[in-house]
Each structure stands twice: as C-alpha cells, then as structure tokens.
What does this fold into?
Amino acid sequence: MWTAIIILGVLALIALLVIGIYNRLVGLRQNVQQGVADIDAQLRLRHDLVPNLVETVRGYASHEKETLDSVIAARNKAAQGEVKSSDEAQFKVALDKLLALGEAYPDLKANVNFQELQRELSDVEDKLAASRRALNAAVSRFNTARESFPAILFAGALGFEQADFHRLDDSEEGVVDQVPDISFRK
It folds into this structure.
C-alpha cells in the first residue's frame, strides 16, 4: 500500500516537473519567435524605404541609372521568398552605393526628402541591429534552458529543437508589401 502511494507521489512529482519544464520552454520559444518577428518588421521597413529613396535620387541623378537599377534589383532579390544572407549583403552594398551618390550631388545631399529618408533608413538599421541582439539573447536563453538538467531529459521528446543563431530565419524571407510611389522629378 505505502509503496503504491510513494510510486504515485513520485510519478506526480515527475509529471509536475515535466509540465513546468514544458511551460518554461514554450515561453522561451515564444520569445525567440517574437525576436524573429521583430527582425522581419525591420527588414520590411528597410525594403519599403528603398523605392522612395531611389525615386528621390532619380530626380537629381537620372544619369546614374546603373546604380539605381542595381539597388532596385538587389532590393527585389532580398524581398523575394528565397532570401539568403548573401542577398541581404548585396542589398546593403547596393544601398550604400546609392547613399554615396548624396556626396556626389550637393543638391541631392541638401534635399530635405533625401535627408529624411537617410535618417529613417539609419533608424531602421539601428533597430534591426537591436532586434538581432534581442533575438540572439532570446535564442541563448532558450537553448540554455533546453540543454539544462533536467529539461534536457524531456526537451527533445516534447518537440523542442535547438534554435539557431547563425542563419537568416524563414521570416526574413519577407514578402514586402507594396509601397506608395513617390516622385520627386525636376
């Protein structure tokens, strides 16, 4: 009789432990997913700013067609469903070339719209970096909790896989919404 009560007590304690581990890992996994969503939102903002920036530059430097076309091509490739970190890197290089045109054209550099778009883009880049740091922290907390004892005994069986720091997440594939066309032609 006492043996059965002790066995039931131990089983109940194990069940409570598993439930606690499961709930904690669910919460930490949600934090990781929130971090991914935050990065997706910042990437969408960055992708949405580019057509406006290109259109502003086009009004001042229309003969820089190759640079403008390369920025749009890189932006479109980065915004498609099969995004790779190399696509985002190429997009960033093309965007840097576009912003460098501001140095070559003093009228463009002085343009209020260009300055505002540059400021917004800088703000988005800062927020994107902060979102990546927050995601890395959330991934670290999740992986640490998943690999800690006794969670490691149950995490795999409960469906909790290790989160990855190093690759772009599926959400960064970002299908970019259409942005309004803005024209600043002379």
